[in-house]
Structures are given as structure tokens and as C-alpha cells.
Amino acid sequence: MRRWKGLDVAKAVCCIAMVYAHTLFWLTLNESEGLRQGAVRDMIGSYAIIGLLPLSIPLLAGAAFYFRRQRLDAQGAITAACFLMLVGFLMNLLAFGAEDLLSWDVLQFIATSFMALYVLRHAWRVAVAGIATLALTPWINSALEGSASYTANVLTGQLANQYYWPFFPWFSTVAAGYLLAVWKQHKSFARGAPIAGLALLGFATLNNALAPPLQVDALWYASMFRPSLSFVLAVIGAGCMLLSIGDWVSKRDFPWVPWFSKGILWIYVVHTIVGYRILPILGRESVSILFAHALAFVMLALSASVGWAIVRKAQA
What we know:
By secondary structure, the chain is an all-alpha fold. The protein contains 14 helices and no strands. α9 packs antiparallel against α11 and α12 crosses α14. It is globular and about 50 Å long. The protein starts with a helix and ends with a helix.
């Protein structure tokens, strides 16, 4: 099956946005993981809507899995998910230290979601599961509030104990990506996807949920990882628009797209380890916006180098 070039473009754009956003956040970290006062923090607040791009990555992962699952048997799916989860825990150790080894983050969440998608397989089952995940989130959060069990924290998130990307409600975005890939096989996708995206983004705007508010006392905060359902719909709407625009842009070839799309996993791992270890040290004093952008460019250059190496290795 031919690659979906629009998906590659969307992944590349979101990967670049992820590196850029992480760089700015890490520069503003203090020892308690709050955000310092300063020009960079104020800029983050002004452009919080850009957060829709990196938060759309699980949706794009769901779309990519649709094409990959046709080549996977049960053993292959389990192996791929376990590998992704192992990489996530190893990254925790190298980036955040032994105390955060078992933290639940995006790689562990995507690995779990891939297993769920493999079991569900058929589009109608994925649709039912995605809608149910979204609809049941308030009830699940209420029922498991305060639970100290690992499973409960994986399902609903627990900010104090480093559990991000809970299955509820975020699996609905992965399911949406899978369904968008199914829809891509039909001619109606070209016109229908941008209309759906605009409708969802419009609904989120009316509900003042187009971007999560900046919370200064914690970097990864509850309103991001336990968001309103309207914001989840905004992420799905952003995914629709990204894939639609990606299809249009992909009529031309850009050499950087494969670097950031095919290399997105290892870019995430490397830039997280390097960035989290180094950038908070560089940013101990308030930094200028110009300096922050310069460091973001350096991190993007590092990420492009990682992606280029991945592509070259695949071509060898």
C-alpha cells in the first residue's frame, strides 16, 4: 500500500511543533517544575493554541497504525507495543531519573492504544470504543478519583504521581485517527475532512476550549491531560485539518518531511533526554525571546539530524 504523504506532512509539522514547544517549556522550568515569570513564559501563554499540534500526534499515530496493522499478526502487534512501551520507560530513566522510571507518558499510552486498536480492528468497533471513551470519561474520572492504584492512574491520569496521557479520554483521539485513515480510502474524504475539522474547531471555540489555559504552577497540568471534552474535540478537529492540509501540501516533495515523520519516535526520545537535562540549566536566569528561539533552532537542528540518520539507515 502506498504511503499517505499527507499523513507524513502532518506528522512532520507536529513533530517540529513538539520540539519547539518543549524547548520553550524546558527553558522556563524551575526546580519545582513551575513556570518562571518572564518574556518566554508570556510568549507561551500568547501562543498556547500551537499546543494543538503536538497534542494531535496520538491521533496521527492512530492513522498510521491503520496501515501498519494489515501487516501485523497478533505476535507482531504485541511485540511492537511492548517495544514502544520499553522505549518509553527507558527514556523515563535517562531523562527524568530512576524515581520516574514507571511514569506513564505518551509512548506507553500509544502502545496501549495500538493493542486496543488491534483487538478492535473493524472500523465500527473502533468508532464505538472511541465514542464510549469520550462519553464515559467524566464518570470514570469521578469513580476512580483518589485511587492510588497504577491501573487507575493509567486510565484517568494522576498529576501528582507523574501519570500523563490517560486512556480516558485520549484514546478517542487515537480512534479518530484510525477512522480518518479508513475514511481516506473514500473520495468523500477530500471535501468532508476539512468540513468536519472546521466544525469541531468551531464548536470548541464557542465553548472557549480551543486551547488549554496556561497554568503557572505546573508544567504538565491537569487541564491539558484531563481536559474538557470540548478540547478533545478541538484536537480531533485539528487532526482533520492537518491531514487535509497535508494532502494539499504533499503535492510537492519537501526533503525535510521524511526526517521529521519517519524519525518522529527517535526524535522524541533524543530531544526529550537532551532537552530536559540541559535546557533548564541554560534557563536558570530569565532568558530573552531571541535566545529562546536560537535554542529552539538548535534543538530542531539536532532533531533533523536524528531524523536524517533514521532515513539514511532505512535506505541503506
